[in-house]
Structures are given as structure tokens and as C-alpha cells.
Amino acid sequence: MFGYKNHISTDRRHGFIRRWAVSSAAEHDSRRFREVLDSGNTGADVWADTAYRSRKNEEFMAKRGLRSKVHFRRAPGKPLSQAQAKANAARSKVRSAVEHVFACQKGPMALFVRTIGIARAKTKIGMANLVYNMRRLVWWDGRTAPA
Fold first, then answer.
1. Three-state secondary structure along 14-61?
2. Does residue 67 sit in helix, strand or coil?
3. Which residues of the chain have pLDDT under 50?
4. Phi and psi for 116 in degrees, rounded to 5?
């Protein structure tokens, strides 16, 4: 595979990118899990895609007193249980906010990473993450205060 992946951790309430990491597209998502977990986050729940579900990551979260809300992965050739499918649907409502970041970067920001080398890709993606946070701040600042 060619390309790079942007792994992010967002603030659930405000939508800001709190932590981020960049990897090559060939690297599995779960390898960047610990880098994007924010120790300063006040919430104990960790919401993530199925790619981040592994025994190591589950143990890592349990040791730190975090509750896993990582999507369940189905076994090869078998469907998810009804309870797991229902849990995934509920988790998707919260986790979908992260996808808004990627949609904004790909759509209005027109982010397209065409670089040679991970260092340049990290710089370009890092700048895009910074610009996203600035745009988000402007949006929050422009909202009227509740009465």
C-alpha cells in the first residue's frame, strides 16, 4: 500500500484534535493506539474503531482504569451477536464525530498528501490538524452564548 494514515484523538464535547499520530498506510492501526490516547482526558471511556481492538490494547486500557468502548469485531465467517451489533450501533453515534474531522480535511480543506518520506507526511498532516483546530476554534468562538 502507498500513502499515510492520520490517527487522531478528539475532545468529545468540543471536537478539537487532542493528540495525533501519522503512520504509513501499510502499518496496522492498532500500533498507534497508545500514542493517541490522551492521559489528560477527563473521561474514562475510550471510543474507537474495530481496528484498535486487540488483547494488548484492552489490557492497556484496563490497567489505566479506562473503559473500552471499542467496536466489536466479528469472527471470520461468523456474524456479530445481537448484543454486540446493538453495542456497535450505539458506539457509532459517539465515534462518528471523529469521522467529521477526516471529512472536513478531505472535503473543504482538500487535504491530499503527496510526499516522499514519513517526515514530510507528518509535517503536512500535522499542519492540517492544526488548521482544523483553528477552524474549529473560530466556529466555537462564533457561536452565541446560551441565555
1. CCCEEEEEEEECCCCHHHHHHHHCCCCCCCCEEEECHHHCCHHHHHHH
2. strand
3. none
4. -110, 120
